[in-house]
Amino acid sequence: MYHWSQSEERLNRYAGRLEGESLSFLVHYWGTVRHLTANSIHRHSFYEICYVDGGTGVYTDENQTYPLYEGVAFCTRPGRLHQIKDVHDLNLLFVAFEAIEKPSAPDVSVKYMEALDRCAVWTEHAGESPATQIWKSMLIRSESDDSLPASLLPKLAHVLLQSFPGLLGASGSFESAPLLSSALQLIQKAKLYIRDNLSGPVSLPEVAAYLNVSERQLSRLFAESIHESFTTMVRTERIRAAELLLQHTQDPIKVIAERTGFSSVHYFTRLFTKFKGIPPAAYRAKWALEADQQE
Q1: Contact 253, 280 (CB under 8 A)
Q2: Which tens digit of pLDDT belongs to each residue from 106-137?
Q3: HEC profile for 125-154?
Q4: Do 110 and 10 have their domain in common?
Q5: For residue range 68-117, what is the model confidence (pLDDT) as tens digits?
Q6: Where a domain ends, among 146, 176, 206?
Q7: Distance of alpha carbon 233 from alpha carbon 203, whole angstroms
Q8: What is the DSSP letter of 261?
Q9: Is 103 exposed, middle or buried (0-12, 13-18, 19+ CB in 10 A)?
Q10: Cβ contacts of residue 63 below 8 Å, gap of 6+?
Q11: Are 217 and 257 in the same domain?
């Protein structure tokens, strides 16, 4: 019914930064995957919302376990250890993103994230929800004449992400949610700064100065809020950015190492292999092969 790999490529190309009047989003990646394989236990520094379009599996969030089957939607929050396992023909739609603070409406993004944090981790019977119908409408159908034009994707994607609190059962509107603490707002700003400056040697003193806080305070905020050190956070972001570039560009490995702030190709290759279990070039080839097989 859908061209899965082509749908994923198109969404990642046209629906990355989603601008709204009072709320905008930065999408790190979209996924439309047939027969998803199990993954290892890991955590993100962003939100990821998933919808099961077929098959079965198990999702774990910290110490909780949730069954996966058609019609289930679930949410992974920042800093939570999670895993998808015991899969069988699992078809999954997913999107990883964060809300962006806008100077014209500085409180809306943190209220939105607070609404997501109040949501249920797992919900069933999501297949007929307006949010899921919008999501599926953005996919490329096997009958290409029935597919929506790419020019509509940014607006539809924005509506989709804005509707996630309702999809996952948040009571009321996110506009009325209480504000996040000033500490979590600082962490959010620090993350954005790190991601915008990965090509350089991002340091704790540099980010602390940007946020106008002490180095000690910033280090403590990272440890207490997302249970990671500043150094670990930067390293994770470099690996994440490199992974996306390997998936969606044909840039040489040396260029990717430079763009993501690694001091040398050798160091990049060694660190990427350590954390992903496969060298960068082999990862790119494996990802491309799996994408071709899913079409």
Answers
A1: yes
A2: 688 888 988 898 888 999 999 989 999 999 99
A3: CCCCCHHHHHHHHCCCECCHHHCCCHHHHH
A4: yes
A5: 999 999 999 998 999 999 999 999 999 999 998 777 676 888 889 888 98
A6: 176
A7: 11
A8: T
A9: exposed
A10: none
A11: yes
